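Notes from the 1:1 (GR / supervisor)

We went over the backlog. Supervisor wanted to see one worked example end to end before approving the batch request, so GR pasted a single chain during the call. The sequence is below; no edits were made to it. Supervisor asked that the structure be written out right there so they could see what the output format looks like.
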Amino acid sequence: VLRISLTDVNGMGVDELCLPFEHAPADAPPGDAAAKSPLVIREEYTLTGHATRIIGGEFELALDQDSGQLRRCVAFGEPALLELPAPHLLPSGAPFSPLPDRATWRVQTVAVQAAGEDVRAVVTGAWDRLAGRCELRVTPAGEITATWDFENTGPDVWVREVGLRLALPRTFDRLEWSR
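Structure output shown during the call:
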């Protein structure tokens, strides 16, 4: 389940989005479900660079240490998330110019560490007009909680849309929305 909660600066809930990624392996043997397996953090060095992998029983995600981008996120052998959730702002009077401009992202730090049974990953960086951090909390059950904290580093702007941008596989065609 990917649950996204939008809050104001005082922590008051503004909106919430829930994307259920319920899937069972097609070739699961009959009987009891497998127990949750502990998460493993593993460093990966390949020709594409350095990544930190978070590996669970039926899922894995990898964060690129050089760019701060999501290198992969798979569950049950299928893609689950194509990129990290990111802020989305649409300025009034500029309907074809959403902020931030993806091409201006520059990572500052990527930190991945165990937090009890869970794994906590923090990516900090900036775009041309926004700076901040994304925190991911990954549970052994494969639940990912993403929290963005960012601020406008440019001139004030009026926006007509505020939210998070998600890049999901085409097969993810079910959406639950709660307010």
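Supervisor's comment: Residues 43 and 52 are 5 Å apart (CA to CA).
Batch request approved.
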